[in-house]
Design a protein that fits this description.
Number of strands: 2
CATH topology of the largest domain: Growth Hormone, Chain: A
Strand order of the largest sheet: 1-2
CATH class of the largest domain: Mainly Alpha
Distance between the termini: 62 Å
Radius of gyration: 23 Å
Mean pLDDT: 87
Largest sheet: 2 strands, antiparallel
Low-confidence stretches: 4-8
Strand content: under 5%
Length: 460
């Protein structure tokens, strides 16, 4: 009996079983929201909303999912703060029900072509219900990880958030096989199957997730300051700077990533589009883990954002100066620069996500970190409505579409190299603004100032 009791207390106090593994189970499930491009055209065609080679009506489902991810995180952050078991259960139910509901309305749309009811149902299921699951599921394990991994907070949160980024690389090939292997109506059948699989994964994560036994949440009015009071411990410009640079990094990332497939076609790599997409997803996940683990070694985590923005500006500028997207086909150096830009932006996009909770905890402490992190994720919500939409507008209204080979069905592939190139003017301007905000508004933490002072005294 004594041995059994010791074993049980051992796994209950194990940071990998109680924090890292459940975080990966939750994030690897909800991260599949980024697989949208794999099946969005299939949904549009099956439901009759692929009109004049345009699937924009269906595309809003993804934008709504990201918007409600951010907004649910902002409004439900206090629930996550108080009870991670309640929040992770909400995430499990909402995500799986939303996915099953999406499958139902795809099936309904297939039997009632061009149905507005089916379209609204997909918006509600994939956008609103799944969005709530995304927001609460994204937040639930983050504070728990930082409590278990006090000395390597960046590594811990990077590991979980890397699961969110890696989900696309893992699930995309599986989804593609399911779409072809399930026959007629494979797209709605796939959603039913995935809803069941992800419910099991997330529910297991929900059961395992637990804060360290020694951690007691402040409960009394005098013990725990309000979020506003916590934010006021620093100049408000400090938080505004963090929010804006987070928003800009996501907006620029989405703007480029949303056009990634067509940019790859412009430089003559259409045959490798799937492989490049997988590699970019690996860079996205690697950036989440690598940049956050690297930040653990720095006195001021804000240095990581400076590095991300400098790299993004440098590679965007190189592709702009060489007109790499427009002139890249057949030119090895330009192709290299374009691919490097795609991979660097993906890595920086991921790194921006994983460093936000730890940067906030360095500035504002752990007391209300889930709620503050949740409010900050509202930047993700607004970026989800602007990044890819602005990029699409630029492509549609600048340059011109030209024929570039044919697809598997023998239909011409239309690309707009000048339009994709012009998206870079939008992103580089925002990256420069973000770097300025990073340098001017976001002040060093007390820990960073003390380290700088100690270093200066040591030199005397």
């Amino acid at each position: 009996m004594g041995g059994t009791s010791t074993a049980q207390s051992g796994w209950r106090a194990n940071k990998w079983i109680r924090a890292a593994i459940p975080a990966l189970l939750l994030h690897c499930s909800i991260g599949t929201v980024y697989c949208w491009s794999i099946f969005s055209e299939e949904i549009a065609k099956y439901t009759g909303w692929f009109v004049n080679n345009d699937k924009s009506a269906i595309e809003w489902a993804f934008s709504f999912a990201i918007f409600f991810l951010g907004m649910s995180a902002a409004f439900l952050g206090n629930i996550v703060e108080k009870d991670i078991h309640k929040s992770s259960l909400i995430a499990t139910i909402c995500f799986s029900v939303g996915m099953a509901g999406t499958g139902f309305f795809i099936w309904y749309g297939g039997n009632h072509q061009h149905s507005v009811g089916a379209l609204i149902g997909i918006y509600l299921s994939y956008g609103f219900i799944m969005g709530i699951g995304l927001g609460t599921g994204y937040l639930s394990p983050v504070k728990t990880l930082m409590l278990w991994f006090k000395d390597r907070k960046g590594l811990a949160t990077g590991l979980a958030v890397a699961g969110f980024g890696a989900a696309k690389a893992i699930a995309s090939p599986i989804m593609q096989k399911m779409l072809t292997g399930l026959g007629e109506g494979g797209v709605y059948k796939m959603f039913y199957i995935l809803a069941a699989v992800y419910f099991v994964m997330m529910f297991l994560g929900h059961l395992l997730l637990a804060k360290p036994a020694g951690w007691v949440e402040p409960q009394g009015k005098g013990e725990k300051p309000s979020i506003i009071a916590t934010l006021k411990t620093k100049p408000i410009g400090n938080y505004i700077g963090i929010w804006l640079m987070f928003y800009i990094n996501i907006t620029c990332g989405l703007a480029l990533i949303s056009q990634e497939k067509m940019i790859v076609k412009c430089v003559g790599l259409a045959a490798f589009a799937g492989l490049i997409s997988t590699i970019s997803a690996i860079f996205n996940a690697g950036g989440r883990l690598g940049f956050s683990a690297w930040a653990d070694t720095m006195k001021d985590r804000n240095t990581i954002y400076k590095l991300i923005f400098v790299l993004s500006i440098a590679f965007t500028g190189l592709v702009m100066l060489t007109s790499g997207i427009k002139n890249g086909e057949g030119n090895g150096l330009l192709i290299f620069l374009v691919l490097a830009l795609i991979f660097i932006v993906n890595a920086g996009y991921g790194g921006g996500f994983s460093n936000v909770p730890t940067l906030l905890s360095d500035h504002y402490g752990m007391g209300s970190i889930s709620a503050i992190h949740g409010i900050t994720l509202s930047a993700w919500a607004f970026a989800g409505l602007t990044g890819n939409q602005v990029a699409t507008y630029i492509v549609k209204h600048t340059g011109e579409y030209i024929e570039h080979g044919t697809d598997a069905a023998g239909k011409p592939i239309m690309i707009n190299p000048v339009g994709y190139q012009n998206v870079l003017y939008f992103t580089i301007a925002l990256y420069i603004v973000a770097l300025i905000l990073c340098l001017v508004l976001v002040k060093p933490t007390e820990k960073a100032l003390e380290a700088k002072k100690a270093k200066a005294e040591a030199k005397k």
